[in-house]
Automatic annotation (TrEMBL):
The chain crosses the membrane at residues 69-91, 98-117, 185-205, 212-233, 245-266. GO terms for cellular component: endoplasmic reticulum membrane; endoplasmic reticulum-Golgi intermediate compartment. Belongs to the SURF4 family. This is Surfeit locus protein 4. InterPro entries: Surf1/Surf4 (IPR045214), Surf4 (IPR002995).
Length: 275
């Protein structure tokens, strides 16, 4: 077995570092656009579904809550217009902050209306989705600040830093729902690697690399386990897998924002610069 000398090891390390920096430079232009598109995908899909399943959604809310025809119709209409309108504003980069607050409201409304509050798995995924929106909100604040580039600044604003921290912590909740507690070697290995990566993202250490690794891992899991296109549309499992697929895609969008923007001021990566 061949062994590398110390100089060869250092050279390889520098080569990997340069390759990583080159990747970040090349993707810097379009990665935020891809991240936003992935992030709003679940809202876009759900808004379209509200249109095509108008009567089913209305009847479900009316039967579950006994709120009557008018309130059930208002609920479906609010979900449809709020989600599609928010997606259009985010993609067009107009009133992004208002769109994010509106989508936060939609998440809260659906959490109560569909009794997600009592389902830990779906609650954690909704919180992870909220984490992605927090990161998008932080990005929009950054864009707003850049309009006043000539104005003296006291440094990065604290609200943005803490939004990025909160977004990172909430995003990792998605991976908590993917842990499998069985004694097989593959599951144990997956749990160990996954746990290590989500801790790195949460504390902000080697954040971009850890987030990109999680993107690749989550993308593979999403395509393999949530292949709704392989299930006939008339089966209930089709809608369930479709919902799961787009929610996971939105979390991937949040992680891509972490790759594009970095961890923010409240992170070990940022503190290392001061050491």
């Amino acid at each position: 077995m061949l062994k590398m000398s110390k100089s060869e090891h250092v050279h390889l390390k520098l080569l990997c570092h340069e390759t990583w920096l080159k990747f970040l430079r090349v993707t810097k232009q379009y990665l935020p656009h891809l991240a936003r598109l992935c992030l709003i995908s679940t809202f876009l899909e759900d808004g379209i579904r509200m249109w095509f399943q108008w009567n089913e959604q209305k009847d479900y809310i009316e039967a579950t809550w006994g709120c009557g025809y008018f309130l059930a119709t208002c609920f479906v209409l609010l979900n449809l217009t709020g989600q599609l309108g928010g997606c259009v504003l985010i993609l067009s980069r107009h009133f992004v902050q208002y769109a994010c607050f509106g989508l936060f409201g939609i998440i809260a409304l659906q959490t109560v209306a569909y009794s997600i509050l009592w389902d830990i798995k779906f609650l954690m995924r909704n919180l992870a989705l909220g984490g992605g929106l927090l990161l998008l909100l932080a990005e929009s604040r950054s864009e707003g600040k850049s309009m006043f580039a000539g104005v003296p600044s006291m440094g990065e604003s604290s609200p943005k830093q803490y939004m990025q921290l909160g977004g990172r912590v909430l995003l990792v909740l998605m991976f908590m729902t993917l842990l499998h507690f069985d004694p097989s070697f593959f599951s144990i290995l997956q749990n160990m690697v996954g746990t290590a990566l989500i801790i790195l993202v949460a504390i902000g250490f080697k954040t971009k690399l850890a987030a990109l690794t999680l993107v690749i891992w989550l993308l593979a899991i999403n395509i393999y386990f949530n292949a709704f296109w392989a299930v006939p549309a008339y089966k209930p499992m089709h809608d369930f897998l479709k919902y799961d697929f787009f929610q996971t895609t939105s979390v991937i969008g949040g992680l891509l924002l972490v790759v594009a923007l970095g961890p923010g001021g409240v992170s070990m990566d940022e503190k290392k610069k001061e050491w």
